[in-house]
Amino acid sequence: MAGSKKQFEAARKLIDVSIGESLRIVRELQELSQSELAELTGIPQSTISAIENNRIRLGVERAKTLARALRCHPAVLVFPGWDSEAEAA
Questions:
Q1: Which of 20, 34, 62, 66 could pair with 54 as two cysteines, CB 3.0-4.6 Å apart?
Q2: What is the CB neighbour count within 10 angstroms for residue 54?
Q3: Cα-atom radius of gyration of the chain, to the nearest Å?
Q4: What confidence tens digit (pLDDT) does each residue in 71-83 have?
Q5: Is 66:43 a contact under the CB 8 Å cutoff?
Q6: In angstroms, what CA-CA distances link 72 with 8, 40, 57, 83, 86?
Q7: All domains of the chain, ordered by start, with CATH?
């Protein structure tokens, strides 16, 4: 085996993340509370909580508003687990 290296492919770790979980993760990565995000967006804290807990739908306009405040693309929030390679198959 001297001189020959085995080629390993890195493991892909895929987890299912809901839209609400995606919002919470991005918000927490930016060290924002729900109340702080509510102040930035004008969306009530109770609505942000309901979205994060998958009790109400995010919606296109709220996704845009939240994405602007979180400085990310709305697709990060709306399609958290989308795999373009799987969709093409």
A1: 20
A2: 13
A3: 18
A4: 999 999 998 877 6
A5: yes
A6: 33, 14, 19, 18, 23
A7: 19-77 (1.10.260.40)
